[in-house]
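User: Teach me something about this protein's shape.
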Amino acid sequence: QTVEITGYTGGSVVLPCSCADPESKVTTVTWEFDSGNRWIKVFEDKKYSGRRVRFNERSPTNLSLLISDLRMKDQGYYKCLTELNTFTTVELKVKGCDLVEKGQTVAVTGYSGESVVLPCSCTELLAKPEQIQWKYFVENEYEEIYPDEEIESYKNRVKLLNTTTPGNLSLHISALTTEDQGGYQCVMSEQEISFRLHVE
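Assistant: First, the predicted structure itself:
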């Protein structure tokens, strides 16, 4: 029997495993991941370094595995094995970020002295992209304005609108001037959305 669990990139997930007998005295448990051609021990694989914790602090029969900061490559089959040769199989599905309106160009109007929001989000709002960049088109090339503020005039004026929803990547620009007018891009991995900002 395989248990199916769904998680989101950037989030955490618990892969369940426990002993049927509450009096069980399991002393060793091994979590393994199916790499396609062999099973790899999770606690020995560098890609999980600093991201996994076993749950057994108060309940020795709870052998569940917590994986934090989920990535797409964590998706697949996991096996929880005890020294009694009993095991549980878990299929982990990881949902990532796909940009809404990717490849589109969106027109936005703002007003001098006020703030504006350039809307960009993942189709799965619980999915956090591994990397996000906002860029501004200046002198025939795009310069990064978030997270690295490479253009002095944007320092302390740009931030992500909503930090509580990982998939909302919308950019808030404050104290608008007519010099902010122009082309912007929300870039994530191989996907992007373009914006034309008009400032009145």
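Now, about its shape. Residues 149 and 155 are 6 Å apart (CA to CA). The longest strand covers residues 87-95. If you'd like, I can walk through any region in more detail.
User: That's plenty for now, thanks!
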